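Extended Data, panel c. Modelled sequence:
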Amino acid sequence: MNFIKRSNIIQFLLFLLVLNSCVKEKKTDVIELKDAELPKDSLPKMKPLINETPKLTAEYLVITKNYIDSFYMKNWPNNSMNGSLLVAKNGQIIYEKYEGFANFRDKTPITSSTSIHIASVSKVLTATAILKLINVEKIGLDDKVTNYLEEFPYPEVTIRMLLSHRSGMRSYAYFTDRDKNVWDQHKTLTNQDILTIMGTKDISLEQKTGTCFAYCNTNYAMLALIIEKVTKLSYREAMSQIIFKPLGMTHTFVLDFDKDKNNVAPSYKGNKVEIAIDYLDKVYGDKNIYSTPRDLLKFDRARYSPSFLEPALLKQVYVGYSNEHPGRKNYGLGIRMIDWESGKSFYFHNGWWHGFTSSYITLKDENVTIIALSNKFTRKTYSVRKLAPLFGDYPFKVEDE
């Protein structure tokens, strides 16, 4: 009898073991839907790039970190940066430095969790959200903007032209600051205001649509409105759902101007004089994202995830669209590039708004990410590109600055 009882217990335990094994297998065997397979009413979401290899050796880390530290001390002697620098390879941080104050009034130090305005690096994130919506066929890359924004007065402009700065539109900062009949600078300008002004105030194009490249913030202000139209969410919430939350970018957000304009890190001139908020500070899409180097590293690596974009669309992101004049400088879909005769390409985006400066560099061939942010004006933020030759054949010279 005891033998039978022991036998039954053993069988029961074996049954539990098999059941537990099946449950574990079921949990890990999760099928992720591609963007094109998502239900029509759902939003695409960025997915982290995980398990990057190979892991960096201790020797490599020490040698590379020492080189970057020497570069840092040369460029920002006597603790003069007032910002942050991060360098990573294969998603693994090699070097990071946080220095100075987020707010000089109360001496709040800049740390790894200090969110700083990333200025025009915001365009890379706005473009990424648009590309994800194209990937799920909620937007067509060559759709006319008028398909989404009925007030938009330039019928030949397409989504691709907005992304690549070939619309021919004028900068909203220029057509709103010279004529009170166009805009009263005592009022804070919004994205919708820009669209309405262009549609009602006879704002002419600066050049014929599609004929040449001309970097223009208005393009990305319109892309933000298109994101809102397609997702039926505010730009702030759409960016959070598509990019920030899925990637765990916990210190990244679009500024809620009315609520938080006085609660975020201000910017300063080079002499530490605080720069006042002006009437252009509410416009988003081209700017107004706050982030940290660690969060931007998560974002950068996610753009290399196999699930990011379909191959045909991804290829178009890194095609140059500013080829009217011979030269190495070019612009893709939301990313700047330098193309050398050797075939080597360098992908990046810089930013500058008030005293904020930013540099985002992604070395595709070497899986390297370089990010620098500052809230005290300096052009030295952009000099971090000189770190690229440490990792690959990037022949920077003085004229590339």
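The first strand starts at residue 83 and ends at 89. This feature is highlighted in the accompanying rendering.
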